[in-house]
Amino acid sequence: DTGVSQNPRHKITKRGQNVTFRCDPISEHNRLYWYRQTLGQGPEFLTYFQNEAQLEKSRLLSDRFSAERPKGSFSTLEIQRTEQGDSAMYLCASTDMSPLHFGNGTRLTVT
Amino acid sequence: GQQVMQIPQYQHVQEGEDFTTYCNSSTTLSNIQWYKQRPGGHPVFLIQLVKSGEVKKQKRLTFQFGEAKKNSSLHITATQTTDVGTYFCAGFTGSSNTGKLIFGQGTTLQVKP
Fold first, then answer.
1. How many residue pairs from chains A and B have C-beta atoms closer than 8 A?
2. Which of B7, B101, B105 should be substituted to probe chain A, the one whose Cβ sees the most A Cβ atoms within 10 Å?
3. Residue-wise DSSP of chain B
4. Any CB–CB contact under 8 A between A62 and chain B?
5. Burial environment of residue B78 by CB neighbours within 10 A (0 to 12, 13 to 18, 19 or more)
6. What is the pLDDT of residues A12-43, one digit of tens each?
7. Spatial CB neighbours of A35, under 8 Å, sequence gap ≥ 6
8. Which residue of A5, A58, A76, B91 is 20 to 30 Å from B18, comparing CA positions?
9. A35 contacts in B (CB within 8 Å)?
10. Predicted local distance difference test score (pLDDT) of residue B95
11. pLDDT over 60 (residue B103)
12. b/e for B100-111, b at 16 or more Cβ within 10 A?
């Protein structure tokens, strides 16, 4: 069990560019969550998957955000036409039945 | 939608003093979880409470779930510098451990040695 892995750890991009993050969950975990966290705030729910099915997506998310988990294993989160307000830590977490196990996150900076 | 609120947002204590953070949900929770996030780290699971009125202890930490299952608290006795971090409560929107897990905004604890 190597834990939840997220790549890259840091991403700096210019406004208007597209970015994609990857999350590799703990192998036996069937649920995978994406959160966004800004300084001084709690993790904000973005979306979650049960196996390959995306079961819920936050209404706070614009259409610029999309997530996939094609084979029920790793997941990707894409942000199109990034804006400065997208700058945050993007956290992935996985679970089977109970506590969430978080990765170290991808810190996005939009300049 | 469901909201989870925590107070206080920040707490500074002298080492050895006690600390309490409170969590309130706008809806009844099937269970509540507590996480700790160290500076620069990611949230790490501490405990889950399921039953109404449940009290659980982990060494100097005492967790309580309210009778109505809408509030919870975390109390740390005789704080140490290793307790520094942000403590989050979180509740699932669905039954049991299904649905999305909603986090409070956290209480950040600073401990002065």
1. 50
2. B101
3. ---EEEE-SEEEEETT--EEEEEEESS--S-EEEEEE-TTS--EEEEEE-STT-EEEETTEEEEE-TTSSEEEEEESS--GGG-EEEEEEEESSSTT-SPEEE---EEEEEE-
4. no
5. exposed
6. 999 999 999 999 999 989 999 999 999 989 99
7. A43, A44, A45, A46, A90, A91, A92, A93, B103
8. B91
9. 103
10. 63
11. yes
12. bbbbbbbbbbeb
Instruction: Give the one of B33, B42, B105 whose C-beta lies nearest to A103's C-beta.
Output: B42
- pLDDT of res. A61: 75
Pairwise CA distance, residues A23 & A105, whole Å: 9
Q: State the CB neighbour count (10 A cutoff) for residue A89.
A: 19
Q: First CA to last CA across chain B, in angstroms?
A: 41
pLDDT at position B94, please?
Answer: 66
DSSP structure class, residue A42: P
Higher pLDDT, B108 or B96: B108
Which residues make beta-bridge pairs with B37? B86
CA dist B21 → A42, A68, B91 (Å):
14, 36, 16
Name the CA radius of gyration of chain A, rounded. Answer: 13
Our CA-based measurement puts residue B56 at a distance from the nearest CA of chain A, in whole angstroms, of 16
**Spatial separation of the C-alpha atoms in residues A33 and A65, rounded to whole Å:** 14
3-state helix, strand, coil in chain A (%, to 5): 5, 50, 45
CB count within 10 Å of CB B40 equals 6
